[in-house]
TrEMBL record:
Residues of the AB hydrolase-1 domain: 41-270
Keywords attached to this entry: Hydrolase
One Pfam family this sequence matches: Abhydrolase_1
Domain of life: Bacteria
SUPFAM superfamilies: alpha/beta-Hydrolases (SSF53474)
Protein name in UniProt: Alpha/beta hydrolase
InterPro entries assigned: AB_hydrolase, AB_hydrolase_1, AB_hydrolase_fold
GO molecular function (one): hydrolase activity
Species for this entry: Microbacterium psychrotolerans
Length: 286
């Protein structure tokens, strides 16, 4: 399953081979890079995303010092099975995957839907997680999370009409700075040219949106249960998961740190990757 210690350490996400692991009745597709040993950092991906949606400018700096693992959720990309219709069930899948790899302690780097899954996982299995990075995300029952589907479909339509990637609308402000950052981000995602992942299916995507809506309408979780060191980050103008929810998480998770990037949206950490990657790497190294 894992590479032997004689293999050269891969620190470029564009070159990380795709592997598979069967756990809990699912064959999960995943990639790993960075030096083995120590606590691994498992990346929890966003709505509609596959292995190919991680920004290499975020992954690579963290993989310089840490064993990094990215994976496809059940029913997404190259992972088998059907997408669950609840965030909690997605967290159960993540738990099965992580335990299947043999890890007892991990750090989590999560973005958007991934951050919701991470919260559900930590509340259920607090012993598994040492540190938590929550970006562009919000808590269960968070204000307007149930409106994500409407915003998403609207932006997909706008993107279709202009022949652009929907993420340019969903993740970035539509001003000069935002448009520039959006194009640069989409270009970075194309740096991997071999062994690319299958895009999410329309059915799987709709099921994920349903799960997010359910999360937004569910009762607020007791986030005082999260005692792990937590870093929270977002842009100041997140249209998908409102920026105020990052502040809400910060208030409710004791001792958490909050970073808000000005003049940026849902993808603020990607727009400001040069500033954010060292902050995240430093937080995980402490």
């Amino acid at each position: 399953m894992s590479t032997t210690s004689n293999d050269p350490v891969i620190t470029s996400y564009a070159q990380a081979p795709t592997r598979t692991l069967s756990a809990g009745g699912v064959t999960f597709a995943y990639r790993e890079l960075g030096p083995k040993g120590g606590v691994p950092v498992v990346f929890f991906v966003h709505l509609a995303a596959t292995l190919d949606n991680w920004d290499p400018r975020i992954v690579d700096p963290i993989a310089k010092e840490h064993h990094v693992i990215t994976f496809d959720n059940r029913g997404v990309g190259a992972s088998t099975g059907e997408v669950p219709d609840s965030v909690e069930a997605m967290a159960d899948d993540a738990y099965a995957f992580i335990r299947g790899l043999g890890f007892e302690t991990i750090d989590i780097f999560a973005f958007s839907l991934g951050g919701m899954i991470a919260q559900a996982l930590v509340v259920e299995h607090p012993e598994l997680v040492r540190k938590l990075v929550l970006t562009g995300t919000g808590p269960a029952g968070g204000k307007d999370i149930d409106k994500v589907a409407g915003t998403t479909y609207y932006d997909i339509l706008r993107a279709t009409l202009t022949r652009s990637d929907p993420k340019e609308f969903l993740f970035f402000n539509r001003n000069a700075t935002g448009k520039l950052a959006a194009r640069a981000f989409v270009k970075r995602l194309q740096e991997r040219t071999v062994d690319c992942d299958a895009p999410i299916t329309a059915k799987a995507f709709r099921t994920q949106l349903k799960a997010i809506k359910k999360w937004g309408r569910s009762a607020p979780a007791d986030l005082s249960k999260i005692t792990q060191p937590t870093l929270i980050a977002n842009g100041d103008n997140d249209r998908m998961v409102p920026s105020v929810l990052s502040e809400d998480l910060h208030r409710r998770i004791q001792g958490s740190e909050l970073v808000i990037y000005r003049d940026s949206g849902h993808g603020g950490i990607f727009q400001f990757h040069q500033q954010f990657a060292p902050v995240a790497a430093g937080f995980l190294a402490r």
